[in-house]
Amino acid sequence: MRTLTKKTSLSLALALAFSSMGYANEAEIEEITVVAKPTSYANNVIEPAMLEQQSSVSSVLSVIDNLPGISINEGDAFGGDDWSTTITMRGFSIDGNQQQLGMTIDGIPNGGSNYGGGAKANRYLDSENLATVEVGQGTSDIASASLEALGGTFNFVSKDPTLERNTTFAYTQGDHNATRFYIKHDTGTLFDNTQAYASYSQTNTSRWIGDGSNGGKDNQHGEIKFVSNFSALTVTGRLSYDDVSETNYNSVSLKQFAQTPDWDQLTWNWTGVPHFDQMFAEGWGTLRENTLGYVKFEYAISPSSLLTVSPYYHKNSGRGDWIPPYLTSPVDTDGKPTTQGGKNAGSYGFADSQGNPLTPDANCKETLSWPWDSGTGLNPACYPDTATPVMSYRHTHYNKDRLGLTADYKLTLGMHDIEAGIWFEQTDRDESRDWHKVIDARIYHHFDSTPYWTQYKNTFETDTFKWYIQDAMTVGDFTFNIGAKQYLVELQKYDHFEAVRSDKINSDSDVLFSAGALYQLNNSTELFASFSENFSAIKDGVLERDGSTLNEIKPETAENIDFGVRYNADRLSLTATAYSIAFDNRITFIAPGSGSDGIDYTVGTNGSYINVGGIDSQGVELSASYMLTNEWNIYTSYTSNSSEYASHDPSAYDANGVILKDEDGNDVSPSFKKGDDVIDSPSDMFVISTDYYSGDFRFGISAKYTGERLGAFLNEQTRARNNVDGYTVLDINAGYAADVNAGPFKSIDIAFAVTNVTDKQYLSGGTGNGSTYFIGAPRTAALTFTATF
User: Fold this and answer.
1) Separation of CA 344 from chain center
2) How far does CA 707 lie from the centroid of its chain?
3) Measuring CA to CA, which residue among 653, 697, 698 is closest to residue 676?
4) Residues 6+ apart with CB under 8 A from 116
5) Exposure check for the chain: N or C terminus, fewer CB within 10 A?
6) pLDDT, position 723
7) What CA–CA distances, in Å, run from 769 to 114, 553, 715, 727?
């Protein structure tokens, strides 16, 4: 194996480009392992053992959880629910309310990581087809194509086709009815210059919470990739398709978790009482289809210059489901019944035999207390026995089309490595919400396919243009880099019912500067320091909300500073980084009626987005990998992070920190003040893992500690807060791989993985408001058999 540890980005790219030209004629190709590019900002790549620690059923997101500064939480051990997936890094988050970290696939932008129309890396890439993940903590890669890269970037890199023809088949069986079939065919070399593969997988799991009809995940996924070499030109094409239906996990309060730590309050038996059945698990669903294709042209213009151009197209479609325990009465602006637009004039939970709404008995005072107070209107005891319960099945439809192009030019001129590029993307996103009548709520949630009300229908158009330029100058043992980038983003909304197009909203950044220095102390040690201005554009979701004051909302920005050291010797590699981040103009959604109990299913486009000040973060990240022997490796990482709010919450306090009053004259709910610790940001994380290889056998064990987190504020006078306990999760994996060359088989592999071996009960990712959290997955085992022939 040849390890490249001291190459510039350009020379590495050129080396790979030129070496690939001879693939078709080489009998043997040396394996090249890239060990974290020598950059002036903190960056990491996953170790091979991190892939083996996860079952093939698991999502590709899970493999980066042991890297410093990162916390990945998914609803179950198999990544079976996007709704409950949260990612944090250095106090920045991807969750239901925030998208502050960038994500790309082979350098192609993912189109956002939010639930409503976004798609994380697991929608584009099967675990067997993942080569590595490149993580830029804090100071993001200047060329990264993302509108969300405030706190760093993740680039998931797919495997290239093999030189030899073969077919791989894998079958996985696991807990919670998990099954997975995977098949992949590598063509080997075609036409003396092309390699390609095609793969397909089918994955099914059940929710780990509950029994019987409790939902789960049904996922079909396919990928095609080819690499062709023509003298100085390399052409790479990739197409992925993902079709998934997921039943969601629900978040719970600390009190609910203390009472029932293995139940998320969703049910799996239909009762015929709509107030209870609104929590029926299979009515909480995520359906998505994602197709992403790109063609990448890499042209070595000369031995010292490389041009890369990558056009791409992405189509996203699907919906999110909920089952409100009532029917609505939509009316237009004149108060007349309507089926499109307008507003809800009132809801009812029971009807007579003719379908006419009923009101509860005026003398009835009884209510149902779970999952929240029903009021008399939803209590069957307040209606005659002949009354019929009614329900809705609410669909929110998401569709997105993205067409874009990235272009990058690298040039070496003496001591200068120059890089410049652009990113252009045009996005159309449709979102609509319709309500369907449940045919008979006494029996099940089967619904009329024709909606009785389409609440809204909007199209959002976003045009994105980014340019960047960077010069890295090498002077002796020093490398200095200085760069600049700018985002030009334009948004517009079209309301189909009002036939109104909004004014175009510009979300342009200033010219953003970055600078850094790297000093090669000796052959094994380098010191680095960097500064970067990062940016997150205003999302089109802000235009959804009628209460948002668009001319007052500013894009989010962050200034990142890194200082660090890297050491890489024969058996020991380690990295230490200290960082400081100033995050400004954080955008938060303020929901209407947020103080009421239960879910307001009719919110629609109400509510508003506002800027709520900034966050200051400081911390230290450490990681080390040591080969005790040629067979035995130990890896560890530690993160200490302190994130504080830089100002008072303007939705709760005036400029002097005095709490505001609501429209009834009561104090609003307490919130954060300047200097308070940020919600759901763990102060400490520690990982230790070890992997042992003996011939064809392998074994690994990994433990991760996540420190306590502070949540929502409970009392304004005492400033008491929710407090989520820290926890440690232990995982093990074992496997056997051998070249058999018997009959049609070339090799076999048996892999066994168990997550949360001790069956620890804990709360994992939060919803962003510090009030509710998702329950961590229990002990989960999976066994995979793989054969190559």
Assistant:
1) 33
2) 21
3) 653
4) 320, 396, 398, 431, 541
5) N
6) 94
7) 16, 20, 15, 20
What is the spatial distance between Cα 390 and Cα 448, in angstroms, rounded to a whole number? 13
> Is the separation of the CB atoms in 619 and 641 below 8 Å?
yes
Question: CA triplet 501, 504, 505: central angle to 5 degrees?
Answer: 130
What is the SS3 assignment for 724?
strand
Strands (E), 646-718: 684-694, 697-706, 709-713
- Number of Cα atoms under 13 Å in the Cβ half of residue 675: 2
Contacts of 133 (CB under 8 A, 6+ apart): 45, 46, 60, 63, 64, 154, 155, 156, 157
Structural element, H or E, at residue 307: strand 305-322
Whole-prediction pTM value?
A: 0.91
Check residue 767 and give its pLDDT: 87
DSSP 70-129: EEEE-SSTT---STT-EEEETTEEESSS-B-SEEEETTEE-S--STTT---GGGT--GGG
> What residue type is 437 in one-letter code?
K
Q: Pairing mode, if any, of strands 525-536 and 721-724?
A: unpaired
Of the candidates 58, 70, 65, 79, the residue with the CA atom closest to the CA atom of residue 249: 79
**Are 745 and 74 within 8 A, CB to CB?**
no
User: For residue 349, how many other CB atoms are within 10 A of its CB?
Assistant: 28
Amino acid at 30: E
The pLDDT value given to residue 136: 86
Residue 68 preceded by cis peptide, ω within 30: no
At 681, is the secondary structure helix, strand, or coil?
coil
> SS3 of 303, please?
coil
112, two tokens: 């956002």
pLDDT in tens, 745-755: 899 999 999 99
Block residue for tokens 């449940």 = 438
Element (H, E) at 223: strand 216-230
Per DSSP (E only), the strands in 743-779 are: 745-755, 763-766, 773-775
